[in-house]
């Protein structure tokens, strides 16, 4: 049995590698929570909901620290009661397994399981 | 001589008040730094630039704390080396003097003068 996606390492994409296609990422996407979707076969997008601005800001900090630790940085949209995330691997212009690993770790933080 | 815009109080808009028109807000906008513009006579938008993700995250926290303290919450878009801000007074569906005061305080934080 393979380890949970969130426990996989976050690794940079090989230089010149192709982004994942839908057939290749479908299994990873199945492992993510309902916040996530793949948009235009190009990036992952999520919206996480919170009770207020302060909770959304706290979550922004937690995933910001994760991004710094793994050196894999999403775009984060913080507003009242909501944090939006967009993420892809800029080096390869699309999705890499590591994007899904990062997404799974954000789910874990959101669920309070980290 | 009036005090700097950033030293004005942030106050909720009066119920039923009309949003500021361009003739009314022009003077406030003149007091803001180059990051800011008014979009569609409806909201303020800024892009602040930073050296990396960590600095952008730190700024996000500073303006997030300001937003909580004044109970006036912008939308914040955090990405590598950049923080975007969108702000208006939701109660009146447009711009209020307080939006400009908040913007001036963010400029002050960005300039390290807070």
Automatic annotation (TrEMBL), chains A, B:
Residues 1-22 are annotated as: Disordered. One of its GO terms (biological process) is tetrahydrobiopterin biosynthetic process. Its EC number is 4.2.1.96. Belongs to the pterin-4-alpha-carbinolamine dehydratase family. The keyword Lyase applies. This is Putative pterin-4-alpha-carbinolamine dehydratase. One of its GO terms (molecular function) is 4-alpha-hydroxytetrahydrobiopterin dehydratase activity. Residues 8-17 have a biased composition (Acidic residues). Keywords: Lyase. InterPro entries: PCD_sf, Pterin-4-alpha-carb_dehyd, Pterin_deHydtase. It comes from the Archaea. It catalyses: (4aS,6R)-4a-hydroxy-L-erythro-5,6,7,8-tetrahydrobiopterin = (6R)-L-erythro-6,7-dihydrobiopterin + H2O. The keyword Lyase applies.
